[in-house]
Design goal:
Order of helices and strands: HHHHHHHEEEEEHEEHEEEEE
Structural class: alpha+beta
Largest sheet: 6 strands, antiparallel
Number of domains: 2
Shape: elongated
Low-confidence stretches: 50-54, 66-105
Strand content: 25-35%
CATH class of the largest domain: Mainly Beta
Helix content: 10-25%
Mean pLDDT: 80
Radius of gyration: 22 Å
CATH architecture of the largest domain: Sandwich
Distance between the termini: 46 Å
């Protein structure tokens, strides 16, 4: 039999072979002390995760190397240990029909925050289009600002301002939307959705300075589920690649902007994660929907976003009769 500690580590990594799974089951059933040891290890990992999940994405980004994403899951885990285990924690998953079931089920009903952003700190968004590495906002021209023209940040003292519908090195006079993206590494949470049983929800609030009755603006949120093949790859910036090469994607309904700078309008979007998801690409966007052939729509006079939040939770699919 393999060393029990090695079997536990392989279980937490999601890398148990069928033979190792049987060995671990046999070991668990052999002695109550073995079950206690296994339970302590699993619950310890869960406690680390609960204490640190809010910073998991930032720490994963700090250690990100595009070359790593090409490794197989087991060798990638060896590359990360012990940093990922200590910083990001591990997600409890379904083991098998055994005595261990009560301790290793996924975190049913628990909402886990993957990203919470009010633009109070961190680097300014890059203006180089779609990002190829996690941990930083990037996209069209935008900036971080404080109160402007009667619009106060919804949370804290700062907010994101959309400026234009293009970015450095690419002028798009015909553009009518300004989009900012962020890549989020969800591999530390993969056992939450390995069976397709989890949903992510992206929310944000939007606002604008007063604009004329002839103008119309709307806000949207989009989620793209990606595997590692697009990460660290410039091809992700090409037109329509995210929608055609993603494992799945979802766009929210358009929320039409009102003309009251005192009100922040909430937009929400959800996506059930495919089992092979490794990264999420978030897109927050403002669109100029004004129907005018004579007026350019690629600049934005005063349009803002704030309080971006990404969460994941287990949720059953709607039963089909």
């Amino acid at each position: 039999m393999n060393n029990p500690e090695s079997l536990i580590a392989a279980y937490l990594d999601g890398a148990l072979s069928d033979t190792e799974r049987a060995e671990l089951n046999t070991w668990l059933k052999a002695d109550a002390a073995n079950l206690r040891r296994f339970t302590e290890a699993v619950m310890f990992e869960q406690e680390i995760r609960t204490a640190s999940h809010a910073t998991a994405e930032q720490r994963a980004a700090a250690d990100f190397d595009p070359a790593i994403v090409q490794l197989n899951p087991r060798s990638r885990w060896l590359q990360w240990r012990p940093l990922a285990a200590a910083a990001a924690g591990l997600v409890l998953g379904l083991f098998c029909a055994s005595v261990a079931w009560a301790y290793v089920a996924p975190s049913l009903g628990k909402v886990i925050t993957l990203l919470q952003e009010s633009f109070e700190s961190g680097p300014a968004p890059s203006v180089t289009g779609v990002p190829i590495e996690p941990g930083r906002w990037s996209g069209d021209y935008s900036e971080i600002v404080s109160e402007q023209e009667g619009v106060k940040p919804e949370s804290g003292k700062k907010m994101l301002r959309f400026l234009r519908g293009d970015y450095e090195g690419r002028s798009i006079p015909s553009s009518h939307s300004s989009d900012v993206f962020r890549l989020v590494d969800v591999r530390p949470y993969r056992r939450e959705f390995a069976d397709g049983g989890a949903v992510v929800q992206l929310t944000a609030v939007f606002n604008a300075v007063p604009f004329s009755e002839e103008e119309n603006f709307s806000a949207t949120l989009t989620l793209f589920a990606l595997d590692a093949s697009l990460v660290g790859n410039e091809m992700v910036k090409a037109e329509n690649v995210l929608s055609t090469e993603s494992l799945a994607f979802s766009r929210s309904s358009k929320v039409v902007m009102d003309r009251d700078p005192a009100t922040w309008q909430k937009v929400s979007n959800e996506l059930r994660l495919p089992p092979g998801t490794e990264f999420l690409m978030l897109r927050i966007g403002m669109s100029n929907d004004t129907k005018s052939k004579d007026k350019r729509r690629d600049s934005f006079a005063g349009h803002f976003a704030d309080k971006v939040q990404l969460v994941i939770a287990r949720r059953s699919e709607i039963p089909v009769p």
